[in-house]
Amino acid sequence: MKDRSLQKIKKDLAIISSNKLNPSQSILLFMGLTFEILMRRDLFARNIDLKEFVEKVYIEKTEKKEPFKDYLYVSRTLLASRLNKLILKELNYTKVLDICRDIQSILPSEEDIRKNKPPKSQDEDVTEWMNFLEKNRSKQ
Predict the structure, then answer these.
(1) Is 73:51 a contact under the CB 8 Å cutoff?
(2) Which of 52, 57, 67 is nearest to 97 (CA)?
(3) Model pTM greater than 0.85?
(4) What b/e readout covers 58-92, taking b as 16+ CB neighbours within 10 angstroms?
(5) Nearest to 88 by CA among 130, 127, 128, 58
(6) pLDDT (tens digit, 9 = 90+) per residue, 78-122?
């Protein structure tokens, strides 16, 4: 599945805080959105960029406030599974709602992401074009 727009993610976060879902459904949807946000490289280009986000948004809402070990930030999937375990075991519905509000305020707009992307160099354009031509030759 292609990356969904940030607007759709924000709408799903709004659904969690509405009365459309029961608390357990809201938490499960929140876990899925957490996974989706952590996997997006347009939001967090490097894995280590996730550390500050996770600690400020998620870890601060836990009882122990114990940060994750550094090895978890090597793999996004490992980090996401540990974070979802934390959500399931340690966070109640009210804390999930607080985190949803925090994430909605933190998430940039689509335009902000496009502005921060460096422009393509001519080398990249030429490489893309050559790859395209090579694919078409191999089909013939």
Answers:
(1) yes
(2) 57
(3) no
(4) bbebeeeeeebeeebbeebeebbeebbebbeeebe
(5) 58
(6) 999 999 999 999 999 999 999 999 999 998 876 655 665 555 555
